[in-house]
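Appendix C reproduces, verbatim, an entry submitted by the partner laboratory led by Prof. M.T., so that reviewers can inspect both the input and the predicted structure.
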Amino acid sequence: MRKSTARVVIVFGHESHMVNLMKEVVRQNVTGLQWMASEAWTTGPLLQTPNLMPYLGGTLGIAIRQGEIPGLRDFLLQISPDLDHNNTDGNSMVRVTL
């Protein structure tokens, strides 16, 4: 990262992975980067520390609003795997073993 000419770093990962990355960023004192974060780590309490502010201050967090799958709610409300465990309609999404 120190040798790269890129000034923007986009990280879509879990907070635990970001903690490990930031340990190395601090160790090498890599500053002057603009970070773009997934919601998985942008609000993570492990990264909200004063010692990381010189590195992560100004991070832009990206959050996916809400997606809707038409018909999914109705489908999930009508299935009864405990009652329909012997059906043969080929639905392998919900399977109950007795």
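The helical segments are 15-28, 39-42, 53-56, 72-78. Additional entries are available on request from the coordinating office.
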